[in-house]
Every structure is written in structure tokens, then in C-alpha cells.
Amino acid sequence: RRGAELTGKLLAFSRRQVLQPTAVDAGAMLHSLADMLRRTLDQRIRIEVRTEPGCPPVLADAGQLESALLNIAINARDAMPDGGALAFACVTLAPLSPQLPDELAGAADARHVEIRIADTGCGMTDEVKERAFEPFFTTKEAGRGTGLGLSTVYGFARQSRGAVTISSQPGAGTTLRLVLPCVQAEHRPDEGDDAP
Ligand code: ADP
Ligand code: MG
């Protein structure tokens, strides 16, 4: 099973994973992930979710998105061994929003959703931040870290026509921003055209 998982992660990183994008309600996904984490993580980690009302669906592979969010949350847990706060949020980025990551400049005329995962953990030095998306880069001891969490998240984000960015400082916590495209009208055959 571990071999299969590893292969899946490597394929995702090399952008060969077969993704099945559908319309995903990121806010609902964050709430159910938070419920699961509240039951399973250390009680000293406070978990909160703030979703924007009416946040539009994103176009992404639901299973891969969930696993990306879980990877990010597990990193946050590892960064807060004595507890802290883990905050999930999602907001709409309007077309041409100045908040859009540079990688998405070519798609700036489209709407995106930004999913933010912020922790109050140990944070990262500049050196770690620069290498965090590298496959097999880990600062954790052997057997604890594989260095494949964030590289997989990066591969998933780019393959989904989105982007992922980190802001972090040692001692000041970490915020991951995962930006994904919203579902375009033509991907929503259920709404509109065929209606009587
Ligand atoms: P792993 O968790 O197996 O080490 P990842 O690819 O998930 O691999 O993360 C790579 C490295 O980035 C981690 O070893 C850690 O140094 C750093 N990192 C990732 N997320 C966080 C975080 N939330 N806070 C502090 N450091 C982090
Ligand atoms: Mg990890």
C-alpha cells in the first residue's frame, strides 16, 4: 500500500496523475475536514473554519484536493507539538485580483478561489521555505517525514491550473494559500441552457 501511495505521489508531482476535476464546494470540504481533524488531532490544537458565504465551486479533483488539504494540515500539526491554532478559510478572488499569485497571470481574467490554511507553529526559515516544494525535501527525522507532502500539493495545484504559495517566518507560524480556478459556465451543464 505504501508503494502504491508513493507511486501515486510521484506521478502527481510529475503531473501525470489522472485527475478527475469536478465542481467542488471548497467551503463544505473545509468544514468536514475540520470536523475530522477535531476528532483526531491533539485537543490543544484549536481548529477554526471561516468560509465566505456564496463562495463559488472550484474545478478540481475532489479526492486529490482533500488529500492536499490533509497533507497541509498534518504539516501544521507537526509544526505545533505543544498545540496552537489551525485556521482554514476560503475566499473568492475576482478576475484581475492583485492577490492572484504571479503564476496565474495568464488566467487573471478568470475567477479563482483562495483556500488559506494558517497555523501558529514553528514557521520556516527562508532556506526551508525555498525548498519546501522540492520532492524528498524534509527537515523531519527519518521515518517521520518523506518530503513528499508539499511537492505533491504543488504538482496537484499546477496540474489543476492553480497555484500554491507559502508565507512563513520562524516563530511566526505558516500560511499556505492554495488558489484554484472556479468552475466556468461551460462546465456546468446542469445549470442554464437546458432549463425550460
Ligand atoms: P514532510 O512533512 O514529509 O517533511 P513536506 O513536503 O510535507 O514533507 O514538507 C517539507 C518541509 O517543509 C517539512 O519537513 C518542514 O520543514 C516544512 N514545512 C511544511 N509545512 C510546514 C509548516 N506548516 N510549518 C513549518 N514547517 C513546515
Ligand atoms: Mg508533510
Would you give an account of this structure?
With 196 residues, this protein is α+β, with helices and mostly antiparallel strands. The protein is 32% helix and 24% strand. The protein contains 5 helices and 7 strands. The chain has a 5-stranded mixed sheet, with helices on one face. Strands 1-3 form a two-stranded antiparallel sheet. Helix 2 crosses helix 3 and helix 3 packs antiparallel against helix 5. It is globular and about 45 Å long. 32% of the residues are buried. The C terminus is likely disordered. It binds adenosine-5'-diphosphate and magnesium ion. The site of adenosine-5'-diphosphate has 23 residues, from helix 3 and helix 5.
What descriptive keywords fit this protein?
196 residues; alpha+beta; two-stranded antiparallel ribbon; 7 strands; disordered C terminus; binds adenosine-5'-diphosphate; binds magnesium ion
State Rg: 17 Å
The strands making up the biggest β-sheet line up spatially as 2-4-5-7-6
Strand proportion, as a percent range, falls in: 15-25%
Distance between the termini: 49 Å
Secondary structure elements and their pairing?
Elements: H1 2-13, E1 21-24, H2 26-40, E2 45-51, E3 58-61, H3 62-79, E4 84-93, E5 112-119, H4 126-131, H5 149-159, E6 163-168, E7 174-181
Parallel strand pairs: 2-4
Antiparallel strand pairs: 1-3, 4-5, 5-7, 6-7
Helix pairs in contact: 1-5, 2-3, 3-5
Bound molecules: adenosine-5'-diphosphate and magnesium ion.
